[in-house]
Design brief:
The protein has helices spanning 5-14, 19-28, 71-74, 87-95, 111-119, 133-146, 158-162, 187-192, 195-212, 235-245, 314-317, 343-352, 374-378, 394-401; strands at 33-37, 50-51, 58-61, 78-80, 101-104, 125-129, 151-154, 168-174, 216-226, 248-250, 261-262, 271-273, 283-289, 326-331, 334-339, 355-358, 360-366, 369-372, 389-391, 413-419, 422-429, 434-436. It is an alpha+beta fold and 459 residues long. The chain has a domain at 5-289: 3-Layer(aba) Sandwich (Rossmann fold), CATH 3.40.50.150. A hairpin with a 2-residue loop joins strand 20 and strand 21 (422-429). The two termini are 38 Å apart.
């Protein structure tokens, strides 16, 4: 691909000794393909997998499979993510050792959110925020697919989030940027790049940081990242945070053989992933600690959410394991299970923010019936012993994921459809037929599967 002269001059100024190698890789080399397995669902790396060095749940694929036709992908057993972005796993594993309130501020489509779920100490509260509604819907689907009950997805501006004074222990901000690091994958990033775009993004980034900074606890960690190369959006933005807010640079231990570049023309700690050095796309990440000399303030809810308690049939209360770890709340016709550990925090966020999804969406109430949700089917908290299941082969699994009716040998009622013991969703078995309950918004649209089906996770 042809890169703009202005951009090439920027690369030359940035890396005078290496810019040509970087240019060649951006212009001609094929991007690598990598996935991260879902540790919360007990998935392990395939034997002999080519591991991502900085993420113990990530590995490289030898080629790009058609993920759409892999039932494991729909079951949330793995997430397709660029290896460079998996560095968040290394950061959190090394710097966070007790359960925390964690915010992914610019979270869609959910790669770094799901990486954080697995990397953080067990039972941390993970809040994923996305300002764009269409992207927030995708985020909800991916977080639900990952299956962790200690999560909450919301659709708010950074300024809205900033009202949650001193609420979060860790905030990760993968801010909107000029996208230079994605040029090898996305020709749109090449076409839209201009020096003016860089300045526009830098201005927006400073606003985002200023808006959300108050939501971070004193002593908390702020993880700043972009998928671009220039210093305006990277080193200079970190210098702005340090100078404006008195933040302290925090180091992350890395191995020399990973070939991660350090910050350019500055002394603070930062980590640059360059595709001519590392196997992945462009990424910049820095970790900062908020100073302690600020008075702590508690966020108080201003209004009460209209939720009503319900008396549930014993079998519905047992759909989660362990059932005693959750409180059930009914809003309109949606039955939600909130983890007791974070019940107050989730309730406050549901009062103060525009929350789209929290805890486990357990069921939809229809008259006297409780219809189990897709989120419950994919949740790691699902008590599978409470439901009959129907194990299906690959062809039947794909038919189910397309929304087609399938034949099953199972008791009447709600049946969990599984493939390779991984839940895919629900069917309502009526005896003479079974209604496919797989959500329309998630269905595979193509009716023609390839002759050779992919197996990212070996059978």
């Amino acid at each position: 691909m042809e890169l703009q002269d202005n951009f090439l001059r920027q690369l030359q100024a940035l890396l005078p000794d290496e810019w040509q190698q970087l240019h060649e890789v951006i212009s001609a080399a094929e991007p690598s393909v990598s996935v991260r397995v879902n540790a919360g669902k007990g998935v392990k790396l395939p034997l002999g997998a080519d591991r991502v060095p900085w993420c113990d749940t990530g590995f490289y694929c030898s080629e790009r499979p058609l993920f759409t036709f892999d039932p494991d992908f729909h079951a949330g057993r793995y997430y397709v993510q660029d290896a460079s972005s998996m560095f968040i796993h290394r950061v959190l594993r090394q710097l966070v050792d007790t359960p925390v309130r964690y915010l992914d501020l610019c979270a869609a489509p959910g790669g770094k959110t799901t990486a954080a779920i697995d990397a953080l100490p067990s039972r941390s509260l993970v809040v994923a925020n996305e300002i764009v509604p269409s992207r927030a819907r995708v985020l909800c689907d991916n977080v639900a697919k990952w299956g962790c009950p200690h999560t909450l997805v919301m659709n708010n501006t950074p300024a809205d989030v900033g009202r949650l004074t001193h609420f979060f222990d860790v905030i990760a901000a993968d801010v909107p940027c000029s996208g230079e690091g994605m040029m090898r994958k996305d020709e749109e990033a090449v076409a839209q790049w201009t020096p003016a775009l860089v300045q526009e993004c830098a201005t927006r980034q400073r606003t985002i940081i200023a808006d959300v900074w108050s939501a971070l606890k004193p002593g908390g960690l702020f993880i700043y990242s972009t998928c671009t190369y220039n210093r305006e959006e990277n080193e200079k933005m970190v210098e702005f945070i340090i100078g404006e807010y008195g933040a302290e640079s925090v180091p992350v231990e890395i191995a020399p053989e990973w070939n991660i570049l350090s910050a350019i023309d500055t002394t603070f700690h930062a980590y640059r992933f360059m595709p001519h050095r590392t196997r992945g796309e462009g990424l910049f990440m820095a970790v900062l600690r908020k100073p302690l000399d600020q008075s702590l303030r508690n966020v108080k809810s201003k209004r009460a959410r209209q939720e009503r308690s319900v008396t549930l049939p014993r079998e519905v209360a047992a759909w989660l394991k362990p059932a005693e770890d959750y409180r059930l709340a009914l809003t309109n016709d949606a039955l939600v299970a909130l983890p007791l550990r974070w019940e107050k925090e989730m309730a406050m966020l549901r009062d103060e923010m525009n929350v789209w999804q929290s805890g486990v969406a357990l069921a939809t109430v229809k008259g006297k019936n409780y219809v189990p949700t897709q989120a419950l089917a994919l949740s790691t908290a699902l008590n599978c012993e409470q439901f009959p299941y129907c194990e299906v082969d690959e062809a039947t699994a794909l038919a189910y994921l397309r929304g087609e009716a399938i034949v099953m040998d199972a008791p009447r009622g709600y049946v969990l459809v599984t493939h390779r013991q991984a839940p895919l969703g629900w069917a309502n078995n009526l005896g003479n037929r079974a209604n496919n309950l797989y959500p329309k918004s998630l269905r595979i649209l193509s009716t023609h599967a390839p002759s050779t089906l992919p197996h990212v996770l070996k059978p």
